[in-house]
Amino acid sequence: MTVTVDRPYQTSYMTLHPLHAVLLASTIPLFLxxxxxxxxxxxxxxxxxxxxSSWLIAGGLVFAGLALLCGIIxxxxxxxxxxxxxxxxxxxxxxxxxxxxxALVHAKDAWATMPMGLILSVIVTLLVCAATAVRFSxxxxxxxx
Length: 145
Known about the structure:
single chain, 145 residues, mainly alpha, elongated, membrane, transmembrane, DUF2231 domain-containing protein
């Protein structure tokens, strides 16, 4: 006896374009690097750590902005619709806004960036990790549905 399985449209399964995946995955090391350099600056007060953190935040904002653009475009496709797509966009948008505020804080004098710069770096890193986890959590391995 042969059994056929009809698989209707599923909102929990989202495809991810490789460029979108690279852009999204690139935000984590950039914002995490900014967090680690803020921790190093907090412990040593070497101004170069603050400069390094500013550049990493700027790079993270570029990649997060492009990933956000890909995510918004993905909402118009059938695979991107659903609760996870919207949650992903909201988390990534919140991370981008907080990252922009963090960039403004880091644009001040190096001595004036602490402790607010460190706190914002922690928040942005957690938001980016959460957004990445939400976006990648819907993918299945090995073709199993």
